[in-house]
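Q: My labmate handed me this sequence with no annotations at all. I'd like to see what the chain might look like in three dimensions before we decide whether it's worth expressing. Could you predict it?
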Amino acid sequence: MLMNLLKQISSGIDRIRTRKPLIHHITNYISLNDCANVTLAIGASPIMANDPVEVVEVVSQASALVLNLGTPNTRMLESLLLAGRKANELGIPVILDPVGAGFTQIRTRTAEQLLHSIRLTAVRGNLAEIQRMTGDATAMRGIDSLADEKNAAAAVRRAAAQFGCMVAATGVTDFISDGHTVCQVRNGTPLLSRVTGTGCMTTSLVAACCAANGPSLISVVAGVMFMGVAGEIAQEALRPGEGTGSFRVRLLDAVSNLTERDVWEKGRCTVD
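A: Here is what I predict for the chain of 272 residues:
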């Protein structure tokens, strides 16, 4: 079963590069450039548009929509709702990244409003963000998770059932569920948590996978695994004396050069 799962996951890379889906991002200004570059690196095409005047027109030409709450404001909420509703109308996958949900009132309210107003394909966040969105009082430091992964599988399965969409909680171990099955991905490196925006970049990869391969649990797992495997390759490529700045560059290199064989050989995943 595991070999078949890895085959399905790895085969999605070539479809992304062949189809080159357009991914509309409404995202934060901190990781905007990184999200655009990682989308290009995996073989998709990014467009970053967040003004309410144009988001409906832009998403109408896209293959997937990313809604990211990294730097929220009231004007952005209007854009998120307009684009999300249009994407639903057109049947376009919508991926929510609830950055800092549960940390401040505006982030929490915005995440809740999107959950209730838009039919989401998937939510990709850290474990604390996911648990806070379900009402659990989980520890956070700013937007970073301090949640214990001991009961993460059950928490993510419960969140997916509650939200009515797939949920990916990324961390030391990544937990992905559709409300029934839970996949645990054990790829990555601690260096991924020391570079700003790698979570947002993972959300972009999930969107690219859903756009090219269809919205499914396999597509969400693939996007998460691609980032983890690329992180490992980037770390292996570091030379003595190189740190997080070099790792950031090598991470983009690793995504752009990622192959089916890389995922097949390095991917580590269990299914419950």
